[in-house]
Amino acid sequence: MVLKANTDHWNRERGPRLETVVFRNDLDPAEALRLVCDTEGEVDIVTEVSPADAGRVRDSQHARLVTTDAMRLVVGVINRDHAPFDDVRARRALNLAVDGDKFVKEGFGGYAYSTTGLTPHYAAGRAPDLEPYPYDPGQARRLLQESGYPAGRPLILAALPGMDGLADLLAGDLRSALGVEVAVVVIPEDDLLAAQHSFVEKVLPAPFDVLLFAWFDLTSDAPAAFMHSWFYGAMGAFRAGPPIPEFDQILDRYVRQTNGAELNALDEQMDRLAHTQALSLFLCAPQALYAVNKHVSFVGHATTFEVAETEVSEGHWSRRQA
Amino acid sequence: MAETTAEATVERPLRTPVGTVHIVDPHPLNWLYITWNTMEEPVRTDAQGHLVGAAMEESRWIDDRTLEVKMRRGVRFQDGEECNANSFRRAFDEVQRWRAPHPPGTSLNFHPQTRLEVVDDHTLTMHFPEPDGLILGKFRGFHIPSTRFWDEHGFGYKKLGSGEGHW
């Protein structure tokens, strides 16, 4: 797909600064990464660089790594329909069982932030006094026992396709901290659509205790509109468990609130409720990573991928050829 | 969400765009990112994700069910047509035809009983049957293309005959 600049765009301060943008859909991500790192003139920007590939980009002759604090979330959806995870003690046990620093370091190469709830620390509406759950295996095991977790029952940890490594990392912590067997089930790509339908429709019981899940937001201004309401609201597509009346009462006020400050106060209330009730297994907010040609100036965005401010220096291949 | 930061129309000399970049974007929302790179919306997000005015210069609640929208002057689509309150009106009429136009779901829908009144070429009011605190976020997914887009393409109309799930 080829985009040509609108030279009469109203926002002259911003751009467009490029004459032509070509989205190449003929390359797989691995080949694209090779081309941006090892060549010039083929690929200038690759999005969604894996943390595992960050070092390769940093060491590249032609590309540099751009990192952006993004409105993205990796979270464990806890199935509150299943005992004992209808009990807040069991849900807190899950949160206390995970070494968040290790998860960020080993799972994301450090390119992520631990989260206290569903709201990253750089978004509006975060409760500033909340801290991530500490890593406390002893307390985690005690709480799980108090919640009546049946002896010998394996914990089912499901994961979206491609999240195998993160699931294994998480399973290791849960096994060692909680003293339970953990069965990791990665949803096959071919079954994903059916699994999504089943999860969203909620007609069949969800076949997991924890679902390792990734989500995003379209703005940083009202996290509950696209995060909390989706995970916990009565109409929330990703709610796993019965509706939560206290949450829905706040949400009902939220969607009618036209004052920005009041809206964010309600964002904060919802995130605080999620944290204190351990409604999810709170993991991290990953950064967005880009491999960018060294002659390209690119500004990463928290909620989108935009190129209006992107420009190239005189040394860029497209200008040398001109 | 209830307010946007104003982004002034700065009168600067036209910048001459130069250069070409090749992008590989495997993100599943690539279709949406291309839409945001090419169409007008009332609002956009800045690099930190905060809402700022775009085709809409400002808005204010007249009461808790009536929102006044002031469109930015001097906005033109790439085909030369002016983007104004009538463009907003056309996009509103088009999107309201469908039950679930947005792929992420109906949470981005305007209430089906919303009424829109064009006051003048750059001012309109939206009348909601109930307060909508999330309206500015919904504006982020409210694409405003030129008349030619609607007449020649629409969101999937010509090819598939439906706009459901195509916004």
Q: What does this molecule look like?
A:
The complex is a heterodimer of chains A (322) and B (167). Helices cover 34% and strands 18% of the residues of chain A. Chain A has 322 residues and is of the alpha+beta class. Chain A has a six-stranded mixed beta sheet. A three-stranded antiparallel beta sheet of chain A has the order 3-11-4. In chain A, helix 3 (88-96) packs antiparallel against helix 5. By secondary structure, chain B is an alpha+beta fold. Chain B contains five helices and seven strands. The model of chain B has no long low-confidence stretch (mean pLDDT 91). The interface between A and B is large, with 81 and 61 residues.
How would you summarize this macromolecular structure in one to three sentences?
With 322 residues, chain A is α+β, with helices and mostly antiparallel strands. Chain A has twelve helices and 13 strands. Chains A and B meet through strand 2, helix 1, strand 3, helix 11 and strand 13 of A and strand 1, helix 1 and helix 3 of B.
Features of the shown structure:
heterodimer, A: 322 residues, alpha+beta, D-Maltodextrin-Binding Protein, domain 2, Dipeptide-binding Protein, domain 3, six-stranded mixed β-sheet, three-stranded antiparallel β-sheet, 12 helices, 34% helix, 18% strand, B: 167 residues, Dipeptide-binding Protein, domain 1, four-stranded antiparallel β-sheet, two-stranded antiparallel sheet, 7 strands, 22% strand, globular
Q: Based on helices, strands and strand pairing, what is the structural class of chain A?
A: alpha+beta
* Main β sheet profile of chain B: 4 strands, antiparallel
Secondary structure: helix percent of chain A: 25-40%
CATH architecture of chain B: Alpha-Beta Complex
Helix content of chain B: 10-25%
Rounded to the nearest angstrom, the distance between the terminal CA atoms of chain B is 21 Å
What's the number of helices of chain B? 5
User: How are helices and strands ordered from N to C of chain A?
Assistant: EEHEHEEHHEHEHEHEHHHHEEEEH
- What is the residue-averaged pLDDT of chain B? 91
Residue runs with pLDDT of under 50 for 5 or more positions of chain B: none
Number of domains of chain A: 2
% residues in beta strands of chain B? 15-25%
- List the domain count of chain B as a whole number: 1
User: In angstroms, what separates the terminal alpha carbons of chain A?
Assistant: 21 Å
Using only C-alpha atoms, the radius of gyration of chain B works out to: 16 Å
